[in-house]
Amino acid sequence: MAAAKEEVQRVPFGRLPTGEEVDAWVLRAGGVEARVVGYGGAIVALRVPDREGRVADVVLGYDDVQGYVDGRAYLGALIGRYANRIRGGCFRLDGREYALPVNDGPNHLHGGPLGFHRALWRVEPLDTTEGAGVALAHDSPNGDQGYPGAVRARVAYRLTARGELVVDYRADSDRPTPVNLTQHSYFNLTGDPARDILDHRLRLEADRFTPVDATLIPTGETAPVAGTPFDFREPAAIGGRIGADHPQLARAGGYDHNFVIRGGGLRLAARVHEPGSGRVLEVHTTEPGIQFYSGNFLDGTERGKGGARPGRRCGFCLEPQHFPDSPNQPAFPSAILRPGETYSSRTVYRFGVE
């Protein structure tokens, strides 16, 4: 990608119903432009060149802040306190049971109806020599959406000269509590939100995934992907096997599953190539899992950017995370943050062409 001057610009984005003004922070570096807002900490635009140098926005979203207030699909948002689902909206920790709001059938999803995606994060420019960035902060009080402990969450977005969007997460708490933060952007590397993503070719660095029950809660096992439609160890079209006769696909209406990423530390978790434009997205993360969601519940009823109405499977999500329902699954990696500890996680979205 051609180099570009690193810069941060602040522009108006709209007013919340409560009266607060919300700005968009425009980051430019490495030929990529990202726009971030304080409401939900959302990435509202991500402009990336194709193999011919033509730039297009590759994430779904809305034209103004009211769209994010009204939206139901978590487009572009930061997710917390707990990304993904918790069975029955409850968990037991240190001998005490905690009840959470149920907002996804019988389960708790993405931190509840007033999770971090509904918070107005504080935003300021990030002082860094490594790219253009912003720092976001949100303080979640004890009892927020039923969770114990006061949690201080900090997220940094940074664009580098290599065409990478680096997302760093940090949190601490004054009581033991589950914490599992992620980013919920929907990608469409064609740059056209009206087109489906079924021709995108996906590779996942995962030998196993976590099967789910009828309410999309993990059963507690990890199952091999070999011989199933969940085998993306070699690049395959997202739509190639999405209609296969498999009970896991039937339960989710497609892909909406957590994959167990090989290895540890910051490593490649996923790679997506869109053949028409040549755009490539790589996702590197320190997290143990990544949720691959094929946009099964997008239904074309919400008005998005430029009047587009993305329909079913017009965007995909790759959400680095701890496993769903980990507070109720002792065999899964622990997602409990205790006083004196720091939750720390990094995800890198690297863009290129081929």
Can you characterise this structure?
The chain has 354 residues and is mostly beta strands. The chain has a single domain (7-353), classed as Distorted Sandwich (Beta-galactosidase, Chain A, domain 5), CATH 2.70.98.10. The chain has two helices and 27 strands. It has helices at residues 65-70, 247-252, and strands at residues 7-15, 21-29, 32-37, 43-49, 55-57, 77-79, 85-86, 90-93, 96-99, 108-109, 122-125, 132-140, 151-159, 164-173, 177-178, 182-184, 201-204, 206-210, 223-224, 236-237, 256-261, 267-273, 279-285, 289-293, 317-321, 336-337, 343-353. A nine-stranded antiparallel β-sheet has the order 11-12-13-14-27-23-22-17-20, with no helix packed on it. Strands 1-2-3-4-5 form a five-stranded antiparallel β-sheet, with no helix packed on it. It starts with 6 loop residues before the first strand and ends with a strand.
Averaged pLDDT = 96
Q: What percentage of amino acids are in beta strands?
A: 35-45%
Class per helix and strand makeup: mainly beta
Strand order, sheet with most strands: 11-12-13-14-27-23-22-17-20
CATH architecture descriptor name: Distorted Sandwich
Q: Helical percent range?
A: under 10%
Radius of gyration: 19 Å
How far is it from the N-terminal to the C-terminal residue, by CA? 11 Å
Please tally the β strands and state the result: 27
* Major sheet size, sense and barrel closure: 9 strands, antiparallel
